[in-house]
Amino acid sequence: VVKRIGIIGTGIMGADHARLLTDAVSGACVGGVFDPDAERAGGVAARSGGARVFADPYALIGDDGIDAVLIASSDATHEEYVLACVAAGKPVLCEKPLAPTTEGCARILEAEAAHGSRLVTVGFMRRFDPGYTDLKAVLDGGEVGIPLMIHHVHRNPAAVPGIPGSALITNSAVHELDITRWLFGEEITEVAVHTPRPSGRAGGTRDPQLLILTTESGVLADVEIFVNARYGYEVRCELVAEEGTVTLDAPPPTSLRRGGLHARELPADWRPRFAEAYRLELQDWIDGTGRGATAWDGFAATYVAQACVAALESGERHVVGMPSIPRLYRG
Amino acid sequence: VVKRIGIIGTGIMGADHARLLTDAVSGACVGGVFDPDAERAGGVAARSGGARVFADPYALIGDDGIDAVLIASSDATHEEYVLACVAAGKPVLCEKPLAPTTEGCARILEAEAAHGSRLVTVGFMRRFDPGYTDLKAVLDGGEVGIPLMIHHVHRNPAAVPGIPGSALITNSAVHELDITRWLFGEEITEVAVHTPRPSGRAGGTRDPQLLILTTESGVLADVEIFVNARYGYEVRCELVAEEGTVTLDAPPPTSLRRGGLHARELPADWRPRFAEAYRLELQDWIDGTGRGATAWDGFAATYVAQACVAALESGERHVVGMPSIPRLYRG
Amino acid sequence: VVKRIGIIGTGIMGADHARLLTDAVSGACVGGVFDPDAERAGGVAARSGGARVFADPYALIGDDGIDAVLIASSDATHEEYVLACVAAGKPVLCEKPLAPTTEGCARILEAEAAHGSRLVTVGFMRRFDPGYTDLKAVLDGGEVGIPLMIHHVHRNPAAVPGIPGSALITNSAVHELDITRWLFGEEITEVAVHTPRPSGRAGGTRDPQLLILTTESGVLADVEIFVNARYGYEVRCELVAEEGTVTLDAPPPTSLRRGGLHARELPADWRPRFAEAYRLELQDWIDGTGRGATAWDGFAATYVAQACVAALESGERHVVGMPSIPRLYRG
Amino acid sequence: VVKRIGIIGTGIMGADHARLLTDAVSGACVGGVFDPDAERAGGVAARSGGARVFADPYALIGDDGIDAVLIASSDATHEEYVLACVAAGKPVLCEKPLAPTTEGCARILEAEAAHGSRLVTVGFMRRFDPGYTDLKAVLDGGEVGIPLMIHHVHRNPAAVPGIPGSALITNSAVHELDITRWLFGEEITEVAVHTPRPSGRAGGTRDPQLLILTTESGVLADVEIFVNARYGYEVRCELVAEEGTVTLDAPPPTSLRRGGLHARELPADWRPRFAEAYRLELQDWIDGTGRGATAWDGFAATYVAQACVAALESGERHVVGMPSIPRLYRG
Ligand SMILES: [Mg+2]
Ligand SMILES: [Mg+2]
Ligand SMILES: [Mg+2]
Ligand SMILES: [Mg+2]
Predict the structure, then answer these.
(1) Do B73 and B201 belong to one domain?
(2) Of A33, B141, C164, C202, whose CB has the highest number of CB atoms within 10 Å?
(3) Separation of C304 CA from ligand 3 center, angstroms?
(4) Do residues D157 and D228 lie in contact, with contact meaning Cβ atoms separated by under 8 Å?
(5) Co-location of D184 and D98 in the same domain
(6) Is the minimum CB–CB distance between A266 and chain D shorter than 8 Å?
(7) What CATH number does residue B112 fall under?
(8) Does C260 contact B231 at a Cβ distance shorter than 8 Å?
(9) Which ipTM value was assigned to this complex?
(10) Could you tell me the residue range of the domain that residue B288 belongs to?
């Protein structure tokens, strides 16, 4: 009983997912692929045990030989493909963001509500990272007591010069927004954004930024997002609780002594850092155990991100004002 | 040519300074001590090579056998003793704060201006900590480029329950206020304070807090101050610059593997962490090389701390509005 | 094309392998299981998607519904099962040791030579550990120059009191013997064993021990093996080369600050430490890419272990005198 | 009561000691200096508060204005100067080695015995290093139980090419010989030396080496000594005991993230690593508290070093056969 997955979008992420489904996940194969670039789709299909290449994404979604769909296409297309999957009654794993706007996300919530059961998973892969699951296990096990603060650091070596400051929030810090909700099991209620002078390397982008988030129970989370950090890719956090703290820094297994330094190597981008998270996310999705982010989580992440963008622009604290969670996602 | 130091206040800090001056600093001895508790003063004098015990602090300040004065008495008394030293024309090292109010600090600035040369050093010992001086050397050496942010963490295991939240700023975070000014060589211009729900261990104190500071050139500094952190004493920071970051965490020289853990021990309070800083601070003061914090630095630290207290109380961003630096402290 | 694996031995290791093959490896399922304890076999079969339970291991090996065999039975039975697999022309993954004696291993080499191609893989899983493969990649990439020494540490929290000292070598240090051969791609030519006074926790066993190994090209490897180390399970090494060193210590992703310590947790046994290695070993075996240890590697590990046991007993350096590698395993 | 120290030998070490005695030690000054290079002596004297320059080392030793003598001259001259100090009844701190030969050391023991009390301290400064004293405190406090093994690593970036292999033992590893004796409070009874192929950077020297030492109670110590390690200077050890281990690695207070690495800087030579040890050693010597290495310790270090040199040359284990400790050094 091998699930046949259809992949929409065979860029870096889609190709990576195809490889994992083919080589490293139990109970799955790539049944079909679609990409606007048919040659690229063909290459991925060939490396995926001879999957079918579809000329039309909706044909793929509707095909009887496709059991479930993975969406790794451009952000703007996520909504329509997810809605088509829901309409077809097929499970779908959609890369973040679920949709770039809260309105788009809301339409998906409505469609899923109309369908009557959950079909949508959002690719917030960090929820499967062994570091983050360790962190949550320590917190939930009561080893450090009641949480009070968390400090996040999220750095990329370089970004396209001059992108809008909002992109740091919606593309990058959105992972911390999701993780903060997931870790504490509650909503973010208030946000603020502080910015230093921008890095001269950022081409005018307001980079870095410091987001300040408050949760329902009063946990304070700060997020340094810095997409032109130059030295490498790094994601870290320290959870501060009443009896102690937990730090996630995920050091690599080896260190070098060379040239006057004792050093550990940092990855150049997020893929080596979260390779295991992606594998576990896919295995969990194939197993149908449902630990991934729901459509509601996708909506909430976009909703809070929009509040942060507003706070960035106004320089003021913003109350998030999250709508209440629909019945389908409770409990 | 051994300098004879008079010590006012022989509590924990004063006794520690007496020991260092006697046992570990070149060119100094304890010439006299005063404490309201004469027995305590006598004990320190006995352990300091037979220093004289004074019954009156002003007599000590004025005595011909005393070359310079170290003030380690209660905060409220600092101003009057410092003013007496300036009046007597004697160098004085005053534990922080220079005075609890900006008005008190300003009176010392005026006295020193009237005297016409610098006599006052404020005991911001972190400026002599090998970790902080390393950090500054890396920054000043251009190894990581232009600074953008700094994240500070400052934790004590326990504080008196129910102290006012302002005390976290004026007693503890004031060290980070000073270090931030010293590190970047510029003033703090704007402050804000965010707070999570308070720790249940704090007896009602708003603890922890997150201070957000902006400097003249636009560096953004955040300071977690947490005085009931339970697990131990810890001071850390990470400086984020355009080409890289520098972290100060000062690990102890040894680690233990025992009971399922690979661990480094954390100190129970600030004294072991900053023992070397205190020694170097005293040696520098005795040598007269003048690298310690000036009366202006003491004034500025208190001034910014007051702005932070106002920001804590209002929940708003506050512009600091620092007066301009007097001629005596320029260059 | 899913490979149907027959598992002989469903103790801790066999059950773990069954779980991985079922849940976490692509292209494999458990086709059948055998264990002298039929109830235990039945439980594993039930958790493995309804695999068949065999009453006879040779029937399992010979069954047309079994494509390949995994042997996780008691050490003494390895040889006969491996020989049966070779006779049946089926690929076999045998947990270490290939056989407890060099004679037993030699009979397998002969059988495989008679068969004419390689069928046997030995479960030296560390070759697939991301830490060890990192280490080898750094070495092979020339980043630290020509290797000169390696220091290994291998500790278990507790062993059965009073086991013979030779068991530390044949059961535990044999992993380092294999890794040393694999890392440098050459044989161990000379061995010596030094021992301190034994731990009072070892019930008379000569524990710990320090093995000293020399390779063909003159690399010196030392191995601390300590099976009653109490504090936890730990495997580390530092490779010393002409231009630098590489350390493998594989820290967990999170650390705790609590109770006066900043600590990382150590595992209680080898399974969490090498969980990823086991998964990758099985995936590689299923993929048939042949990076696992061969029967020759299994023979060589046992051969060098026997030389170490002789060195332990005599207190003298021993020349290993490894036979030359058979044609089947060259190149 | 400032002790006036006469310094014989004003090379790097002597000049460093002069600076510490002048600037960083309480209760001492440099009273006189001698060096065969009178100009060099004059420079050090000038930087030492106007100390006298002596033209004759024996005149310095005998001078009434010199209370104690520090010997930092070439190794071959140590014996005669120490004997002159003993004859003059003056305390003397002699850089290691006490004398290059056991016979030379023995003559000093005889002289001191004839004098009837201890005057000689040997400059094994590591006994004062905060890392080593931490390590010993943990061991003596029973936190890890009875010691079984210790692994030492001692690396220098470069040495003069082609020096004899014995020099690695007598110049460098002698520090580990002393520390091992000091840490466990017992003698080394048996030694062996293993060597890999030498580094191509060593110009023919047998470098690195692995010394294996056994103490009276059966602790096994191994010492990697590598004087052309290229990457930096480093001294580390891990003490292995029945209930846990203690590692001394003395990380610097700051780390850098830059260029794809998270790194701590390693010193280029031993002086920054042991700067604090030298200061504390001198302060202890000035205080006369007698925690430094005695003439017997100096003799024993040379004695064991000679046994290691014999073991290096023979390739065999050597019994040390240490003479029994003279009455003067007991208890
Ligand atoms: Mg993602
Ligand atoms: Mg202070
Ligand atoms: Mg194994
Ligand atoms: Mg020395």
Answers:
(1) no
(2) A33
(3) 17
(4) yes
(5) no
(6) yes
(7) 3.40.50.720
(8) yes
(9) 0.97
(10) 126-329
